[in-house]
């Protein structure tokens, strides 16, 4: 064949990366890999091992230790022993350790990249050019946060001992995403890598040891699903950080309920890839290649749902099919391939079954007619067009190289289709009209949105989802807070038991006129409403005197309140100035009735007049605080190492349930409701169960303060019973619950249904008069999701 013919055909020959060093490294561990605990490799306490396989060939790669309860116990004990000393190191000392780890990664980058490609099956070009450099970037970036931790996070301390469970699709990069911030901020780690892909984690352990990382700070326990379950259930772990499937994430939420563990979940996705008719079509086609065929589509944020405007749909699909035909599937170490191997036969079988199901539901199948390697687990680039929004391939995560396509006519329809999913991880918007792209980006239910780009990542830019894609952020300042806890909450003590509700004492009648009977109603949709069940409960003074009655709310009342809150969605889009002004009005109107509210607190709780007045004054001040923050709690602009910016935009979570603490009936209510409405949320609040009259008096303040109907809804009754209803409600996006330990456990367990965000106190009492513990940024941060919108610019 002549050179000219190669230029005519533009065909590729093989360009294999050498694997000699990687195979030598594996050969040195031919007897098997142990766990890395307390700075040394140790065999499983049980002596059990399991094999890991090479996806491209199906051959055994290595023998790994299978972690059991004793191994997890040993790793946790080592981490606990090391953590306090590690946290006490000056930030500069920790920064130097992370810098050393970053440099070690760079010095051994090629070995890491080759081992990763062999172990995972992804192309060497991806591990070499993306995964490993970005992993080093994470350690460099978080070395910086360690250096300035004392000033930037002065009111926070490390969480403590952290259990981290990572997936098989980005084994080394996920390690860096989790280990770097945890270590930087003073925590100790037990990492459980995926059973399919543990090798680069063990290689990293060797490098970390050589770099002088102190013993016990980093521990790695390999194993299968049961090993991860042991980590999740361990009583001496302070936080779990998990990346993986939504199904497993839901189980973890249930199993950690009531444990007091901090939890970060980065779960599945079904990300929309929206192409408008003014988009650069060829650019968008290349975007699809990166969105769904990168890493064989085994990406949680893969742009797997193509939404193409009708006017260009035929042309777009024609060019996409032509581009698919040029993709190359081959051995992972071939530098000329676009796609490597599927992780395992079981995943390949799942992909094949879902594609078959999609075709049976009416989709049109197109697969690139290209040669696949013999042996191993390989699947061709696949497009399913004409997909209905309710088809299983449009709603379920396939986690393979399969794009599904549907069309839309208007931007509004595109937004509706894009948000028609239980997930909310990422999205891409393609349009040459930047105003249109940003308008759509703002309305998409996703934690990350790329404009005219896809699958951009950086250590400085937070990553994470909404809905059933999980909660929490990884990367940047947002991700640092996931590994810290407020100093003001550290010393909280268990809440003292509230006195039993007094029995109403009989009162002998006389000939004086009785007071006019009044039963406080519920407050739903801006109106007073009788409880559905038409039951009420008597509220008594500490001496047993009846001082009022409130409605006994039930499931239908909560349903009505949630519907009203949903209907008030305009509040989330109101200007921050408007929200601030209304909070000032509320404070002004409460101030005008301060004596009345103080008297009510005294009558219900028996507090002295001075203490009651102090609580009202604090409530007014707190309203002023959140009025002040309403137009000042703003996002930031990240500047990742590319030509472009990423806008970190705080967004209202949506409909939030609030179970108010039994104590501080007015101040506790306002301390939780005010930050939520200041940031644009709508609230369904359950007032203090023993002392609800402050809240039912308060709705008359709301009625005279221009608060739109449905923004604040108040349902009185049993805290635990109403919490159960709110926690299980799929249209409630978050739930804050302050009360008993039982209440916290119940809320966290039932919230797993739609993986709503929770804020609970685990039965620990908050001093609501203490501004450090009860006011400000630590509540505002939990009242929003941060959406990162990437905007590349230039040619």
Automatic annotation (TrEMBL):
Species annotation: Rhizobium indigoferae
Active site residues per record: 266
Domain of life, per lineage: Bacteria
InterPro entries linked to this entry: Ald_DH/histidinol_DH, Ald_DH_C, Ald_DH_CS_GLU, Ald_DH_N, Aldehyde_DH, Aldehyde_DH_dom
N-terminal signal peptide: none
Residue ranges of domain Aldehyde dehydrogenase in the record: 41-487, 537-763
Keywords for this protein: Oxidoreductase
Family: Belongs to the aldehyde dehydrogenase family.
Protein known as: Aldehyde dehydrogenase family protein
A Pfam family the protein falls into: Aldedh
